[in-house]
Amino acid sequence: MDNIEKVVCCFCGETLLLKDAVILSIQINIQIGETQQLFCHKNHFIALIDKSIPLHPDLFDEKIQNI
User: Fold this and answer.
1) Cα 13 to Cα 28: distance, rounded to the nearest angstrom
2) What letters, b where the CB count within 10 A reaches 16 and e where it falls short, cover 36-49?
3) 28 within 8 A of 36, measured Cβ to Cβ
4) Element (H or E) spanning 63, and its range?
5) How many whole angstroms separate alpha carbon 44 and alpha carbon 12?
6) Beta 6-8 vs 15-17: how paired, if at all?
7) What is the pTM assigned to this prediction?
8) Tens-digit pLDDT profile for residues 13-66
9) Which residues, 6+ apart, have CB-to-CB distance to 18 below 8 Å?
10) What's the rounded Cα separation, in Å, for the pair 7 and 55?
């Protein structure tokens, strides 16, 4: 990614680099294909999602964050 894009975390309102953000794609209605993307800090997503929900292993891999 050549250009540095910033996005806003949907949980805290602070900015972060797009390359560091977790991207949440929300489909409001199963019958309507439109989606909205929200962005957040990885640590907020992990902390706020219920612990019974299995998460992708890359969320815990620090090497992925430095790509």
Assistant:
1) 22
2) eeebbbbebbeeee
3) yes
4) helix 62-65
5) 8
6) antiparallel
7) 0.76
8) 999 999 999 999 999 888 888 999 999 999 999 999 999 999 988 888 765 444
9) 1, 5, 6, 7, 39
10) 22
CA geometry: angle at 6 spanning 32 and 41, to 5°? 75
Rounded to an integer, what distance in angstroms lies between the CA atom of residue 47 and that of residue 12?
13
What's the rounded Cα separation, in Å, for the pair 45 and 23?
10
Amino acid sitting at position 32: I
Q: What is the pLDDT of residue 33?
A: 84
For residue 21, how many other CB atoms are within 10 A of its CB?
A: 22
Residue 31 C-alpha from the chain's centroid:
24
The two tokens of residue 56 are 């992708």
Q: What is the pLDDT of residue 2?
A: 53
